[in-house]
Design goal:
Elements (H helix, E strand, L loop, with lengths): L10 H24 L6 H12 L8 E11 L2 E10 L9 E10 L2 E8 L44
Antiparallel strand pairs: 1-2, 2-3, 3-4
Length: 156
């Protein structure tokens, strides 16, 4: 027969009860650790870097998060790109990204502030404007260029 203690329960039952309490405690700690706090610049930077790793030509750039704001499951980030080794604060370009929380990481949904095909240098006076300033006058003796894009192939 089993030896009974003052509690009146066999030792195996006491062991199982203690094991249940221990497992419940471990489970609570594990579940609490599953939801990481990713509302910080470093987590956003990691999400942007994961996104950029799928694009080529960015290995020569330093990437930093200039600013970030969080809304529930989204983040708006201003990301600064600058050539490695450049220490000029005015050099580089800022891009705006929208990121979405997926599990314990941020994933880039897209960019804002620039439409597809937009000039990253801003509006430079419309189509046909000289981006370097000055007039767009043709040199003397140059044939006229139609402005509607129909061009020289229309009569051929």
């Amino acid at each position: 027969m089993h030896r009974l203690r003052k509690s009146g329960r066999p030792p195996i039952i006491r062991f199982v009860n203690r094991l249940q309490f221990a497992l419940a405690g471990v489970l609570i700690v594990a579940l609490a650790g599953c939801h990481k706090d990713i509302d910080n610049s470093e987590a956003v930077r990691q999400g942007v870097m994961n996104y950029l790793s799928k694009r080529s030509g960015l290995t020569a750039m330093d990437v930093s998060i200039a600013s970030v704001s969080f809304r529930r499951d989204e983040a708006d980030a201003t990301v600064h790109f600058q050539a490695k080794g450049s220490d000029s604060a005015a050099s580089g370009i800022d891009m705006h990204y929208i990121l979405e929380r997926k599990g314990n990481e941020w994933v880039v949904k897209g960019r804002t502030g620039m439409g597809r095909g937009a000039n990253p240098h801003g509006d430079m006076g419309g189509a046909g404007a000289n981006p370097h300033g000055g007039s767009m006058a043709l040199p003397p003796g140059h044939p006229a260029v139609p402005s509607d894009g129909a061009g020289a192939t229309a009569g051929k």
